[in-house]
């Protein structure tokens, strides 16, 4: 079975989740899988717990045909998941790197905490300033999220191959 995967990647607080909610208005057949959901469920404060979160994410991908995957895009575990998937499935993958200005990301991070957002505890230290690293996967589109999530979703839809819509 062929799998269609839209990766929405980028640093923390770039608006990935909000853009994905808008994207689902155009693509209701897609299932959203976010690594942070699995990290919260299985833990990520040790390398083994982080590995288990990625394994469960991989298992869920096996169950779906149309997937929007939300990650930072920088984990080697992501690359390994794709190596595994390519061995068993025909894949069509489109990766979008979402960016936002650092000052906006810091503001969003503060707003999240006020609203009670629970961030997974990682086994390695990372600051919001250090997160702007390149994706481990090839990126087909870079979108600078300074406008509305609706506009970003529209830009993604304009760039998606027809076979993925």
TrEMBL record:
Keywords attached to this entry: ATP-binding, Nucleotide-binding
GO molecular function annotations of the record: ATP binding
Gene3D superfamilies found in the cross-reference section: P-loop containing nucleotide triphosphate hydrolases
Pfam families: AAA_33
Name of the protein described by the UniProt record: ATP-binding protein
Naturally occurring in which organism (per UniProt): Runella salmonicolor
């Amino acid at each position: 079975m062929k799998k269609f995967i839209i990766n929405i990647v980028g640093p923390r607080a770039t608006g990935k989740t909000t853009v994905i909610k808008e994207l689902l208005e155009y693509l209701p057949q897609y299932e959203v899988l976010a690594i942070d959901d699995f990290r919260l469920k299985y833990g990520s404060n040790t390398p083994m717990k982080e590995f288990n979160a990625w394994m469960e994410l991989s298992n869920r991908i096996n169950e779906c045909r149309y997937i929007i995957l939300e990650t930072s895009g920088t984990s080697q575990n992501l690359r390994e998941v794709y190596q595994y998937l390519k061995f068993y499935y025909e894949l069509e993958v489109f990766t979008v790197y979402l960016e936002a200005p650092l000052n906006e990301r810091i503001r969003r991070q503060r707003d999240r905490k006020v609203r009670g957002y629970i961030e997974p505890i990682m086994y390695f230290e990372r600051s919001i300033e250090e997160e702007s690293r390149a994706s481990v996967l090839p990126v087909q589109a870079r979108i600078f999220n300074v406008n509305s999530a609706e506009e970003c979703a529209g830009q993604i839809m304009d760039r998606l191959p027809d076979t993925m819509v």
